Amino acid sequence: MLHVENLHAGYGASEVLSGASLEVKQGTLVALIGANGAGKTTTMRAISGGLKPSRGRVVLAGQEVQGLDASRIARLGLAHAPEGRKVFGPLSVEDNLLLGAYGRLPRFFGFRTKAQTDLERVYDLFPRLRDRAKQASGTLSGGEQQMLAIGRALMARPKVMLLDEPSMGLAPVIVQEVFRTIRRLKEEGLTLLLVEQFAKSALEVADYAYVMERGRIAVEGTPAELSRNERVIAAYLG
Amino acid sequence: MNVQIIGQMAVSGALMGLVYALIAYGFQLTYATSKSINFGQGELVMVSAFFSLTLTNLGLPYWAMIPGGLLFGALMGLIVERAAVRLALEQKSEGWILLTIILGLFFFSSAENIWGRDDRPFPTPISADPIHVLGVDVTRLELSVAVGVIAIMGAIELFKRRTLLGKAFEAVSADRDAAELMGISATRTVMLSYALSGAVAALAGILVSPITTVGPTMASALILKAFSVAVVAGLDSGFGVVLIGMCLGALESLASFYLGSGWREAPGLVLLILALALRPNGVFGKATIRKV
Q1: What is the pLDDT of residue A31?
Q2: What keywords does the record list, in alphabetical order (chain A) (predicted)?
Q3: From the list B180, B182, B186, which residue is nearest A100 (CB)?
Q4: Do the chains contact at A74 and B182, CB–CB below 8 Å?
Q5: Rounded to whole angstroms, how far apart are CA atoms B44 and A169?
Q6: What are phi and psi of B12, to 5 degrees?
Q7: Which residues pair with A220 in a beta bridge?
Q8: Which residue has the higher pLDDT, A112 or B287?
Q9: Looking at per-residue confidence, does B66 or B1 come out higher?
Q10: What is the pLDDT of residues A145-202, one digit of tens each?
Q11: Which residues in B lie closer than 8 A to residue A105 (C-beta atoms)?
């Protein structure tokens, strides 16, 4: 579903990604783990178009998308819940969710009716968002904002969802809740690429995982294989 | 001092102040989406007024001329965005400042060549006879300014809150990169904001022209005051510009009555200096205004 090949990208003259390749098959959850500064978030941004890759290919559902505008890639079926959540603070929770489905809703009138089923689905998944539907999203707690960011990405009915550091800055009990949700989404058949610093939690839900070091994939394998790999244990699971 | 005269002066001044507010609102629209403004906005007001005058002279009735003028303003706004703003923003440069000024100068000399240098009257079916409201005399013409300003600002605010496209406009204003991830094209949204800003400038020209006449220099004083209002209220203050615009208009009118017409510009400048010294983000503002 998502195929990334020899991706190079960076900021100005400094190259952060130097040839990352990975593959996310339909209906699977793939985890991308690694130390701070290894290039995980840069990989995500280069895939979703926030950063233009200088070399390499990104193929989404059979179509090459590298170099396209982020908005174009999003409309082709890639939803990216970015690091730091990036909810639209002044807008209400419901408006945030509606904008998640922007690509397939009418621009002027009748968009709320058309999005109703998807809204209900997200509210069922995160009942707390239903309670706060009219509230400005900037006033939500970190955990609620993360749920909103995931919900907003779901609204697009994406072919692939990128989820960047969903546990960042959250209390352990909330992190558990987030991971329960991720597991549930995977069981519903969503195709997911997950970046996570909590390597252990990520490997528990993943079907396959890549370990990133200095802008390249250093090790890859199933969670079971990685859990036996001494280098991975020493660096990330110790 | 006579209370009634003060009231009279304050009310007519405040009604004129709404025009400053409207132009300042046009600055806010583009600042929200792109953190840039058109420094040639005054010329946009002026050429739109000339174009509307031409439509009227061609025999178009007043009410049919207004949409034509607004459309022309929107088109000019798009030209400004494409010619002076987009490339500069893509390169994260401040070049749009100089480019919008230069484009304004170009519009100015074009207007002089096409329509001449003379000030011309702008015909309107709205009567200039005073009517008596709450002890002060206002003309229907002055009231039409207030109605026009409130109507277009209300319509645009309603659009931003009630339509998905409007919500997308707000999303780009809040976080451009995140909006792109939702499939919202930031470039198109910035274009939309410049088109709206141009239409707003055109309406300001149409509303003010019957009172001030139309000429190449008609907007140079207007635009300075609109800048003052935008800076004093804050470039992200929403309806704050209305309040500040009306205050400034009233102060000006009182200053020119009591101190002489030479002092007309003084309140605006004093207000501007005070605001920059005391509240650089604007009285109602949130974010820092880019120092230019």
Answers
A1: 95
A2: Amino-acid transport, ATP-binding, Nucleotide-binding, Transport
A3: B182
A4: yes
A5: 48
A6: -65, -35
A7: A210
A8: A112
A9: B66
A10: 999 999 999 999 999 999 999 999 899 999 999 999 999 999 999 999 999 988 888 9
A11: 164
Residues in chain B: 292
Farthest CA pair distance, chain B: 61
Do the chains contact at B183 and A98, CB–CB below 8 Å? no
Is A80 in Cβ contact with B170 (below 8 Å)? no
Nearest residue of chain B to residue A71 (CA atoms): B183
For range B26-35, the mean pLDDT: 95
Q: At residue A212, what is the residue type? A: M
pLDDT of residue A199: 87
In this complex, do A71 and B163 lie within 8 Å of one another by their Cβ atoms?
Answer: no
Phi, psi dihedrals of residue A15, rounded to the nearest 5°: -90, 125
* CB-based contact B185 A69, cutoff 8 Å: yes
Please indicate whether, in this complex, the C-beta atoms of B164 and A86 are within 8 angstroms of each other. Answer: no
- C-alpha angle B109/B111/B115, rounded to 5°? 130
Class of domain A2-90+158-237: alpha beta
What's the confidence (pLDDT) of residue B282?
79
Which residues in chain A are contacts of B185 at CB distance < 8 A? 69, 71-72
The shortest CB-CB distance from B165 to any of A80, A91, A108 is to A108
If you write DSSP's letter for every residue of B259-289 in order, what string do you get? T-GGGTTHHHHHHHHHHHHH-TT-SS--SPP
**Is A88–B185 a contact, with Cβ atoms under 8 angstroms apart?**
no
β-strands A160-164, A192-195 pairing? parallel
pLDDT digits (tens, 9 = 90+) for A70-89: 999 999 999 999 999 999 99
Evaluate if residue B292 carries a pLDDT over 70. no
Q: Averaged over B245-249, what is the pLDDT?
A: 93
Q: Which of B181, B184, B185, B191 to mutate to test the interface with A (most CBs of A within 10 A)?
A: B181
B292 by Cβ neighbours in 10 Å (0-12 / 13-18 / 19+) ranks as: exposed
Helix (H, G, I), strand (E, B) or coil at B74: helix
* Assembly ipTM: 0.92
Q: Which residue has the tokens 């690429």?
A: A193
Question: Cβ separation of A71 and B177 shorter than 8 Å?
Answer: no
Delineate the domains of chain B, giving CATH numbers in brackets: 3-117+137-278 (1.10.3470)
